[in-house]
From TrEMBL:
Its main location: membrane. It catalyses: Zn(2+)(in) + ATP + H2O = Zn(2+)(out) + ADP + phosphate + H(+). GO terms for molecular function: ATP binding; ATP hydrolysis activity; cadmium ion transmembrane transporter activity; P-type zinc transporter activity. This is P-type Zn(2+) transporter. The lineage of its organism: Bacteria, Pseudomonadati, Pseudomonadota, Alphaproteobacteria, Rhodobacterales. SUPFAM superfamilies: HAD-like (SSF56784).
């Protein structure tokens, strides 16, 4: 959300001074000083509470829009109304995850329920949890474990605790928060949610090849040791055989470089909104 505000300001030719004494309240907003003036940016209720006012009536705002309040020097300065677009590739990504055996897919977001319902309409999710704080996202991850291993996908700083709590945490690393990348087990280096499916395919293929190499390598080594113990191999022959086994295992492992995941069809520009987190539950790589 912050990135969208900064991008819109730059597009209008505004000069953006560097803020000072910035403090972030996770899931609520930020407070800091800009050119000596105290500025508060965040949800309407959060900003209103900081300036001693009641939240306003914004029922006229279109459903699915996000309202960001701005206060300067203790006075409400205005509101920014933002529309939350979908990430490109979300629908195709969800279809691919279903094919990969992911049994249960939920969306966990700090956005309002009407926003979340609008952006996920027609995606076929198994559940939607809106208006969640970072702690509530962690609780959701832990509660979903009764269904099996949990994979969490997120890109915001509010997702970091849930990413760390999940069995597998996946962060969107291209434009996501550094905290989420540090907390995750896997980081996607491109800002495309549809790369998650191919990532799972690559992980499963690499794991399968690794297990093959371990089983075959240990098996042949055991056979060689038995043959040497029974006197069928001299020490030199045993050493040469072990080298051959090692080379064979390494060559087999190199097959991982040739894994070609299924490429989803290029969808229309729509998918999961930036700043929200998907909880994907089911089989893990």
């Amino acid at each position: 959300m912050a990135q969208a505000i900064v991008a819109a300001a730059k597009a209008r030719g505004f000069t953006l001074p560097v803020p000072e004494d910035v403090a972030e309240i996770p899931g609520e907003g930020v407070v800091g000083h800009v050119e000596g003036r105290k500025v508060i940016v965040g949800g309407d209720a959060f900003v209103a509470s900081r300036v001693g006012r009641r939240p306003g009536d914004h029922s006229a705002i279109a459903a699915g829009s996000v309202l960001v309040a701005v206060a300067v020097d203790g006075h409400m300065a205005g509101h920014l109304v933002m529309s939350d677009p979908l990430r490109e590739g979300a629908a195709a990504m969800l279809d691919g995850l279903r094919r990969e055996g992911i049994a249960r897919i939920l969306l966990a977001t700090g956005d309002r329920a009407d926003v979340a319902e609008r952006v996920t309409e027609g995606l076929g999710l198994d559940g939607l949890r809106a208006g969640l704080s970072p702690d509530q996202k962690v609780l959701l991850v832990l509660s979903e474990r009764k269904h099996g291993p949990v994979m969490m996908v997120g890109d915001g700083i509010n997702d970091a605790p849930a990413l760390a709590a999940a069995d597998v945490g996946v962060a969107m690393g291209a434009r996501g928060a550094a905290a989420s990348a540090e907390a995750a087990d896997v980081v996607l280096l491109v800002d495309r949610i549809d790369r998650l499916g191919p990532g799972i395919e690559i992980a499963r293929g690499a794991r399968r090849i690794a297990l093959e190499s371990v089983v075959v390598g240990i098996g042949l080594s055991v056979v060689g040791m038995i043959a040497a113990a029974l006197g069928y191999l001299t020490p030199v022959q045993g050493a040469l055989l072990q080298e051959v086994i090692d080379v064979a295992v390494i060559l087999n492992a190199l097959r991982a470089l040739r894994i070609a995941p299924h490429e989803p069809a290029t969808p229309q520009p729509q998918a999961v909104s930036s700043g929200q987190a998907d909880i994907l539950h089911g089989a893990t790589p």
